[in-house]
Every structure is written in C-alpha cells, then in structure tokens.
Amino acid sequence: MTKRTTNRPPAVAAWLLEHFGCGPNTDAMLGDLAEQYLHKSRMWYWRQVLKGIPVSMVNEALGHKAITAKAIVAGCITWLTFLTIYPNFVFGFAGGPVLTFDILGAPPLIGAWAALSSPVATSLILPNNSMVFRIWIQFALPLIAWTVCGWVVTRVDIGRTHRDLAPLFAGFVLLLNLVAGIPGLIWFLAKFSRFNYVINGVPFSTLAPDLIALTVAHAAVAVFGILLGGSLRRTKSVVTT
Fold first, then answer.
1. Left (φ > 0), alpha (ψ -120 to 50) or beta: where does 201 sit?
2. Residues near 177 by Cβ (< 8 Å), separated by ≥ 6?
3. pLDDT tens digits for 208-229?
C-alpha cells in the first residue's frame, strides 16, 4: 500500500474550489475538506470539489436572483460592447484578404455561439495573416475583454466579495459555450463546406479538430479572464444605511 507523500490537498482541485466556489461558506469548506483529507484519498477530494462547486453556484444564484441576473446582464453587455469595436482592431490591421459570412437568419442558439466565439471565427477567416496577429485577435484581445467583464460584474455587487459573482458569470459563460457550442460548430463547418471559398487562388477550408481546439481555447480564455477580472476586487464593500 502506497502512502501519500504530502498531506496537502490536490492543488488544482483546491484552486478550482477557491475560485469557483460561491457564497460565504467557501473558506470554511476548504478548511473542512483539508482536515478530512488527512484520512481520505485524492479521488475523494476531487469528488467533493466537483460536487461542491455546482451546488454552491446554484444555491448562491437562487439565493440572490436579482443580483445574479444583474451581474449576468452587465457581463453580457460588456462583452457585446467589445464585439462592436472588435472589428476595428482586426480588419483595420489585417494584412491580407478576408472572408466574411452572414449569420442573419440563423437560429438563436447559433447566434449565441457566434457572439461568444466571434474571435474563433475571425481568426479562421483571416488565413493570410501572421501567427502573431492571429494570437493577438484570438487570445490577447479577448482576454483583455473578458477580464474587463469579470471586473464589471463585481461592480454590481454591494457588500459581498468578488468571489460571489465572477465565478457565477464564468459558470454562465461556460454553460452557454457547452449548450451552444455543438450546434454552433456544426453550423460553421457546414457553412464552409457548402461553398467553395478561394483566397488568392487557393481553396480555403477549415478542419473540425482545428475549430474545436480554438473554441475550447477561447472558452478557457473567457473563464480565466473573468476570474482574473473578478480577483481585482478582493475587499468587501461597506453598506451604508
């Protein structure tokens, strides 16, 4: 029988609970799990974390419906505002021909995916630009925007810590990516396979693995950016009466 080399809980699991756990009991839960972990396995700790995070999110959202809805709306408006100026940072500096496509008339779920994953589609329809430029529009700009979103959602809060709202909005964005991601990816791939796009005489096509990888990467950037933005406000506000 092998022994654990350390009594410290799994670092990744503890980090997930610390940043995604919602409500005033997160710190207490971390302490309780750390004590129980002395007599439990790593798998047990991961199970408690993976069960505790969604339960705490749901309880916090149901317990504060108005503030949760306000935070989600504020975060979505901030991201949509970024999307309105995003093309100016892209097409104005693009070094080669671009492709365009129209999502008007697409089902709402497709529109939601397109709004969330606009940097993914944009990086694919600018095939003749440098890798540095593609990283700029695919990762750097979205990271900045999602960080601002995370900061904004904490500003609708009064008298509660940043942890309560930034993880809730990050969870909402992640859930929306999961719900809208599959139909969105199918629609996008079908769109490009239905027509023969040619750039500088070279047929253009995108592979499903590439599109999936970029979509997953962007979802990770979104979650990280929101949590990063939320962490910029660590102190509790004082409620005056």
1. left
2. 113, 116, 117, 215, 219, 222
3. 777 788 888 888 999 999 988 8
